[in-house]
User: What shape does this take?
Amino acid sequence: MAEILPLLQTSHLTMRFGGVVANDDVNFTLEEMELRCLIGPNGAGKSTFFKMLTGQLTPSEGTIRFRENPIAGNLPHQIARLGIGIKTQIPNVFNGLSVRENVWLAARRAARRDASAKRAAEIVDEVLQRIVLTDLADAVVGQLSHGQRQWVEIGTVLAAEPELILLDEPAAGMTDEETVRTAEIIAEINKTRALIVVEHDMEFIRMIAKKVTVFHQGRIMMEDTVEAVLADSRVRDVYLGKKVAA
Ligand SMILES: Nc1ncnc2c1ncn2[C@@H]1O[C@H](COP(=O)(O)OP(=O)(O)OP(=O)(O)O)[C@@H](O)[C@H]1O
Assistant: This one.
């Protein structure tokens, strides 16, 4: 019988910057259609992990497998074409264009395939529904609220139709209402796509997460349900800055 591969698997993944070991022997597995949250205090290694997954950094050691493809050290556009999309915290939308135009441009330049104008228009309609901005499709992005602009950013990632979506602090700076809406959007996306979400807001993690991976000092310290992780005294100590063995 054919082996069922995980969607993503890292083995012994390590990233050193001189004497700093930013990721240390990280063995991480994500199943198809899984939604995983990554948490950990500042400097724990979450951004470095994302940068290796998207090709911004070449690991010092270890492997990354996306389905059957070894991707460690591949270029970012090659990894995007294989189906990994990322929303970073760096703004990536055109403020002078409408919501629809931003998503349309992203669909047209999607790295995975040459989207025809007709297909791009279909993708735009699907994406606008998913980010719940159909009613604001013609609004200029620069005039939207912070939360709405973040949803447009997510929309531009979705427009490339990735299989795995990485979100770096999607609820940062949002109002409570926007945070709840973001959790709903993520749950909707997760009906058809896998996601890894880095987030500091524990209330938000409670809203979306099933399984949580805790990074500490470049290593995976714990992996469990959101309830178990948030109740764990080591996790609390790490966030309070106490010394805890990784
Ligand atoms: N380009 C770099 N050169 C040197 N050190 C780096 C570099 N990038 C990250 N580091 C170090 O690697 C460690 C992990 O950093 P990283 O940014 O991955 O953590 P993080 O968990 O994403 O933190 P935050 O929540 O603050 O974003 C830190 O000690 C950081 O200073």
Notes: Residues 17, 20, 22, 40, 42-48 surround adenosine-5'-triphosphate (CB under 6 Å). The CA atoms of residues 99 and 133 lie 8 Å apart. The chain has a mean pLDDT of 92. The chain has nine helices and ten strands.
